[in-house]
Amino acid sequence: MNKTREIAEAGLFAALIAMMIVGAYFVPLAGSLITMFLPLPIIVLTMKNKIINVIFSAIVGVIVSGVFITFVGSVPLGGIALLVGLPIGLAMKRKQKTLVTILIGTLFGTAAFVAIFALIEQFTGVSLFQIIEESFKLSTEMQGELTAILGADSTTAAADAQKLLTDMLYLIKLIMPAFMMVFAMFYAMINVVMAHQILKRLRIDHVPLGRFEDFSYPKHLAYGSMGMLVLSYVVGAIGLVDLELITTNFAFLFTNIFVVQGFAVIYYFMKGRVGKATSIVIIVLLSVFGLMQYISFLGFFDVLMELRKPRIKVN
């Protein structure tokens, strides 16, 4: 690819990035979906072009979109796209294993989200916790108005709603570190999966994703997770850190990491019996009914005991 073609391609992707940022900012409902896939153009461009051109493309996309939505809106969205998409794209370009690529995306994604929220707080004076608290308060007020319209006991309903608000805010503040990491992990995972589909259609050479039913973490992850859980309890018990804080965060991480393999195990055994679509519906229903912890333990034991035979390791 000659230099002129590289620059032209970077320009086209800059336009695509700008359109996605504007869409994420303005389009109701669908904007949230667009935000989830902002790193995709960066990943694909990284596979096809030089790093300097990728960075140039992202900067131009941010500048162009900033004209339409203000730079306060475009910089955070463009920053997330670049800080998550570029590391994932480089990992895929260097043919890293899928799990390694997701791990890289998770680490950079966590750093990106922390940096963006810190930047927003610096310029607006509004923290992430304040945004969450205002959202909950708005929901509580709407619920109170609805209760009054329906003629229910507004005093009791308001007290119950306030208690629920307080409890949920406390829980969110408690698990925020782990929540940021888990969100970054799923954010990276979704973009890696979608990037593989796009690269396949564009016939760009890459390491195949592999089948979901064959997904498996390495055994040392299970041993390490158990060690960290035990260590967190010991450290909390002797008073070095808050026991509730550290154990709650590690438990949240444990559940959300191993639930992925738990879903893979269920899908493995159900797919041949009821088909793909029904298996997916069953997995969704199990999640909705609050069985995530049990599914995560299933995934954890599968890592240790290899419940699926024959076993095909994921790339």
Quick rundown:
By secondary structure, this protein is mostly helical. It has helices spanning 3-26, 30-36, 39-48, 51-69, 71-93, 98-124, 128-150, 154-201, 219-237, 243-274, 276-288, 292-305. Helix 5 runs antiparallel to helix 6 and helix 10 runs antiparallel to helix 11 (276-288).
How would you sum up this structure, described in words?
- This protein has 315 residues and is mostly helical.
- Helix content is 82%, strand content 0%.
- The protein contains twelve helices and no strands.
- The chain is globular and about 60 Å long.
- It starts with a helix and ends in a 10-residue tail after the last helix.
- The mean pLDDT is 82.
Averaged pLDDT, please?
82
Number of helices: 12
Q: Could you tell me the strand content as a percent range?
A: under 5%
User: N- to C-terminal separation?
Assistant: 29 Å
**What general form does the structure show?**
globular
Task: Give the topology string: H per helix, E per strand.
Answer: HHHHHHHHHHHH
How helical, in percent, are the residues? over 70%
Which regions contain 5 or more consecutive residues with pLDDT less than 50? none
User: In this structure, how is the largest beta sheet organized?
Assistant: none
Structure class: mainly alpha
